[in-house]
């Protein structure tokens, strides 16, 4: 018999849908973090790539909130705008954490900020701009659900420091996100449960989330298998 309790809530249904595809993302992450002599270079590549992703987080949320505030008669828009404004403040400066970690790893000043973002990053992040502009800002909740629902494992930072030989201070972003993102995921689930979402809006969140899983797994696979020699393009 099908349960009609919490398992049928919009947030629970989204988590159920994601559970069917998240093994792909987890496998890609495991390949990226596998032990071996290439791990230090893969970690540096990870910092480059995730800086290009994370520096878009606050601008995305602010843009989506602005669009919500221009939809005063949409019952989803006001609570969504409040959540996005608050969450943008929580996420502000996280891209600077990655710059600090990269500097500890020996990255020259300006290396991360001057790099041309590759097409894979544009595919991951750019889809959100499209949906915000041409569909509904609620799409961004699918993106946030995946990024914060796949936080680094609690012991990952310590293992990476031990196996790479890099200073522990080079792994602050990994450590901090392992601590923070579980609480953020719970806040997001509560929001999705409160919003008066239409079937179309629920579908949009799911499409956004599934795209995010696919695109993020492709990024992790590129880090796991791509060139990591000094001076190579981080794509």
TrEMBL record:
SMART domains: Haem_oxygenase_2 (SM01236)
Domain of life: Bacteria
InterPro entries in the record: Haem_Oase-like_multi-hlx (IPR016084)
Record's protein name: Iron-containing redox enzyme family protein
UniProt lineage: Bacteria, Bacillati, Actinomycetota, Actinomycetes, Kitasatosporales
